[in-house]
Specification:
This protein is α/β, with parallel strands linked by helices. The chain has one domain: sialyltransferase cstii, chain A, CATH 3.90.1480. The chain is built from eleven helices and nine strands. A nine-stranded mixed beta sheet has the order 2-1-7-6-5-4-3-8-9, with helices on both faces. The N terminus is likely disordered. Bound molecules: 2-acetamido-2-deoxy-beta-D-glucopyranose (3 copies). One 2-acetamido-2-deoxy-beta-D-glucopyranose (NAG) binds next to loops. It comes from Megalops atlanticus. This is Alpha-N-acetyl-neuraminyl-2,3-beta-galactosyl-1, 3-N-acetyl-galactosaminide alpha-2,6-sialyltransferase.
Length: 285
């Protein structure tokens, strides 16, 4: 008899669970029914609508991640000898860019990667080492941005087609594309912050810009690692570091920044980034 009471209460709890499941199932079925009537099949209308998963079939799946604290790790040479690896790995989510490696740099940049924001131009770099990125690091989420000519989904977008093949070969890997609407939103954000039309001013948005916008979408707070401030390079005593921590012996960071300025390309990136970060709960190290 002694064991009866817990059994009943657990059974009652079980029925509550049943009820919840049945209710949500009917809502889901009703929802799918309504969605189908509208001509679209929607599996789950949750997540961030600016990022849509690259999959086969006609279902639409949005990026559904939320993190309390994010580490946004830049690819700058400032990361070398920073010794921030352990601190980075302790935050909820770790965001990196393009093909920035962790192997061999764990002490400075950490070893976890929750999500990578990847430029269309860096997709071939991931494919060069696809075993590492899509098999060994299969739990990393990939978010790819690119212009319409490369990312269009009508069969003419070269990079999109490549990503579709990757999605077929590694079905468990989650690869998302930044939607055209989100890219247009980023252009408007750029214009609002700089007063300049991105295309008229000949600038390209950087992967860093898209990464910051995504981090603002998915993180409650963002800890930025290794990004310099806009006046850093004009200080006479600044230290020369490689543009990327994993490409030593190439052009140093500040020289790259000056080249971009002269080319009138990406020249307003730092001001833009600074102005945008200032509005959010972002901390630099
Ligand atoms: C692939 O990436 C891993 C991790 O960065 C690296 O250790 C390995 O050497 C790379 N392999 C090739 C073929 O580039
Ligand atoms: C840009 O500024 C306009 C006018 O202040 C505002 O309505 C709009 O929401 C802003 N857009 C973005 C993407 O920040
Ligand atoms: C350079 O000098 C300024 C003061 O003139 C100081 O605030 C800054 O920390 C120095 N930077 C480095 C990298 O030593």
């Amino acid at each position: 008899m002694k064991s009866l009471t817990p059994w009943i209460s657990s059974q009652r709890r079980f029925c509550w669970v049943c009820l919840v499941i049945i209710t949500s199932l009917s809502v889901l079925i009703w929802y799918n029914h309504v969605a189908r009537l509208g001509g679209v099949t929607v599996t789950a209308n949750v997540g961030l609508h600016g990022y849509v998963r690259i999959t086969f079939g006609n279902t639409e799946e949005f990026l559904n991640i939320h993190c309390k604290q994010c580490a946004l790790v830049s690819s700058s040479g400032q990361m070398l000898k920073a010794g921030k690896g352990e601190e980075i790995d302790h935050l909820d989510c770790v965001i990196r860019m393009n093909n920035a490696p962790t192997v061999g740099y764990e002490h400075d940049v950490g070893s976890r990667t929750s999500l990578r924001v990847v430029s269309h131009t860096s997709v071939p770099l991931l494919l060069k080492n696809e075993t590492y990125y899509f098999r060994q690091s299969a739990d990393t989420v990939y978010v790819v941005w690119g212009p319409e000519r490369n990312m269009r989904q009508d069969g003419k977008g070269q990079i999109f087609n490549v990503l579709l093949k990757v999605a077929r070969k590694y079905p468990s890997v989650k690869i998302y594309a930044v939607t055209r609407e989100k890219i247009q939103y980023c252009d408007r954000l750029f214009q609002n912050e700089t007063g300049k039309n991105r295309m008229q001013s000949g600038a390209f948005l950087s992967t860093g810009f898209f990464t910051m916008v995504l981090a603002m979408d998915m993180c409650d707070s963002i800890q930025v690692y290794g990004m310099i401030t806009d006046d850093y390079c004009s200080q006479a005593n600044h230290t020369a570091v490689p543009y990327h921590y994993y490409e030593r012996g190439r052009m140093d960071e500040c020289r790259m920044y000056h080249v971009h300025e002269r080319a009138r390309r990406g020249g307003h990136r730092f001001i833009t980034e600074k102005a945008i970060y200032a509005r959010f709960q972002v901390q630099y190290f």
